[in-house]
Amino acid sequence: MKNKKFVIPDGMEYFMPNEAKLFENLKQKALKKLISLGYSFVNPPIFDSLSNLLSLKATDLDIETLTITDQQSGGDIGIRADITPQIAKIDYQISNAKGINKYCYMGDILKSSSRDFDRKNPYQLGTEIFGVSNKNSDLDIIRSMIEIVSLSREKRLIIEIGNVSFINNLLDSFEISDEKRRFLVRLINLKSKSEIKLFCKENKMDKKKSNFLIELIGLSGDIKVLKEIQRLIKSNNMNFVNEINELKFVTKGIEKLRSPCELQIDLCELHGYEYQSSIVFGAYVPNFRKEIARGGRYNAYSTGKNSYREATGFSLDLKDIFNLSIVNERK
């Protein structure tokens, strides 16, 4: 060993003997829970063809997925930044886009463009349901999410529910370029009303629709806010009856899954909006820098002209669950 210095790159981490054993125990507990809920375990590799890693419509995956040269073939292969696209490929090979399939998975990923204080080497765990996309499958996925987050021993859990249909339909009606659309989405995620007003004015966007967007941004909170959202939709002659009813069903279902559980409604949370199709959700715990888990419905892959294999799922970094469980055990 010529260089005896032990330097760990920023955003990376080691598990030493005792930690590694505890983490392995957590992995086994999580897998046992998910299998008991009816999910089949699959384990794709961290290196894969780019066609398997970039099958979802998500520009962030294009940026984060590292490519390397396959010395044998001379072509490019990738290091995955998300396991979900691989699970979609597995589903297609197993089902040929027919029937309902439930999968769980876990494994290392690499986030090359991770933000400050974020981990570059997460250990992603998740569940996916293919072949159905409705309120019952949403609850199934949310239940699996709650079960895994609960392994952190956190007593307080906040579930945020949204639906990207409201904003996506509005953005489609604006008929703006993809670049301007992405910029507007960033402003919506920041909930920057003044900048959104200026953007809409500069781009000569429909004033009534722009005002609806700005009002919608201000409507977030507990389950009671759904009544205010309904009033806003009705006053603007918009038809989102089915979406509202689904939100009501899912929120009531979550209350039955876990108690106590705080519920929040936010229709302007658009992370992952590019490939997610309607209901989205996230889990939050106290004193954590961001959501600890995230999921929602999406179109997994095309099955024909204007036809898609519908799916819903969630994922998290199991290392976050592990670290929180250690902290909570010491309390």
Low-confidence parts, pLDDT < 50 over ≥5 residues? none
Reported for the largest beta sheet, the result is: 9 strands, mixed
Mean pLDDT: 87
- Over all CA atoms, what is the radius of gyration? 21 Å
N-to-C order of helices and strands: HEEHHEEHEEHEHHHHEHHEEEEH
SS class: alpha+beta
The amount of beta strand, in percent, is 15-25%
Structure, described:
The chain is an alpha+beta fold. The chain is built from 12 helices and 12 strands. The protein has helices spanning 17-36, 50-53, 59-64, 84-95, 135-149, 165-174, 178-190, 193-202, 207-217, 225-235, 241-257, 318-330; strands at 40-41, 47-49, 66-69, 76-79, 101-108, 123-130, 158-163, 220-221, 262-266, 276-284, 293-304, 307-317. The strands form 2 sheets. The protein has a 9-stranded mixed β-sheet with strand order 1-5-6-12-11-10-7-9-8. A 3-stranded antiparallel β-sheet has the order 2-4-3. A hairpin with a 2-residue loop joins β11 and β12 (307-317). The longest helix has 20 residues, at 17-36. The two termini are 41 Å apart. 31% of the residues are buried.
Helix and strand arrangement:
Elements: H1 17-36, E1 40-41, E2 47-49, H2 50-53, H3 59-64, E3 66-69, E4 76-79, H4 84-95, E5 101-108, E6 123-130, H5 135-149, E7 158-163, H6 165-174, H7 178-190, H8 193-202, H9 207-217, E8 220-221, H10 225-235, H11 241-257, E9 262-266, E10 276-284, E11 293-304, E12 307-317, H12 318-330
Parallel strand pairs: 1-5, 7-9
Antiparallel strand pairs: 2-4, 3-4, 5-6, 6-12, 7-10, 8-9, 10-11, 11-12
Helix pairs in contact: 5-11, 8-9
